[in-house]
């Protein structure tokens, strides 16, 4: 059995850093030879989250069919915030139990919500995913009607 040969090279060119990490010439978060900080994965990157700047769902948006049926509940949805701040690809990940509430949630989010998008460590906009719950409370709607 022979031990592996350690990698050779000068610190400045082999991924050296002021932060300890695993691997030859490691620095920051990562594994393997010359690993270091800010990569493009679940590492040390400094991505900023998206920030909603426009749009909301109001009690007055309650679907009439759902209200007439006495339906209420929470819809969990997942959607993309694109680099232009628009929303796309909304899907229901947990149903409220009422199709009208579920469909209305995604339709209104895609129509109304706008974001200042996520940005990478260099300030460039990047696509991101958001998961949120929308509560539909029938009592609030009945009080208004």
Automatic annotation (TrEMBL):
The keyword Transmembrane helix applies. Its main location: membrane. The keyword Protease does not apply. This is Energy transducer TonB. It comes from Sphingomonas paucimobilis. One of its GO terms (cellular component) is membrane. Keywords: Membrane, Transmembrane, Transmembrane helix. PROSITE patterns: TONB_CTD.
